[in-house]
């Protein structure tokens, strides 16, 4: 509930609203779009609230983040795997999770379901950092 509250606080905190559809930043992802709902910078930290949709069969591609992410699953199911090819979570509607920062936390998110997956994600990043950094498939039999 804390994560959901943090998402709501950022959204309601008077941030500049820019409903800008963008392609997902990690490659070789597929079937993923994102809309930035709000963005602000406080000190040396960027706070970006984004809604991400992953179509059935879609994938974020392997990637990592320069800051911490807080995510809430609005609908669908996210299958989340680490760079050692192990499953580290299956998150269904109503679930919240965190993704830690750094290149030692490479991961991939996939929608293995039959309905679109919708996530609300709060990115807490060093100022000027990209939303994600691409990474090569570490040798897993899935993308």
From TrEMBL:
It comes from Kribbella speibonae. The keyword Signal applies. This is Cupin domain-containing protein. It comes from the Bacteria. Keywords: Signal. InterPro entries: Cupin_2, RmlC-like_jellyroll, RmlC_Cupin_sf. Residues 52-119 form the Cupin type-2 domain. Gene3D superfamilies: Jelly Rolls. Residues 1-26 form the signal peptide.
């Amino acid at each position: 509930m804390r994560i959901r509250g943090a998402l709501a606080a950022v959204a309601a905190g008077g941030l500049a609203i820019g409903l800008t559809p963008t392609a997902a930043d990690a490659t070789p992802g597929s079937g993923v779009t994102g809309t930035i709902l709000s963005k602000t910078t406080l000190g040396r930290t960027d706070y970006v609230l984004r809604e991400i949709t992953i179509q059935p069969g879609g994938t974020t591609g392997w990637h990592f983040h320069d800051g911490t992410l807080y995510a809430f699953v609005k609908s669908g199911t996210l299958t989340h795997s680490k760079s050692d090819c192990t499953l580290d979570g299956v998150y269904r509607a109503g679930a919240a999770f965190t993704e830690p920062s750094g290149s030692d936390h490479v991961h991939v998110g996939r929608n293995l379901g039959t309905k679109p997956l919708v996530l609300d994600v709060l990115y807490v990043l060093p100022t000027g950092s990209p939303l994600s950094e691409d990474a090569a498939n570490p040798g897993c039999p899935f993308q």
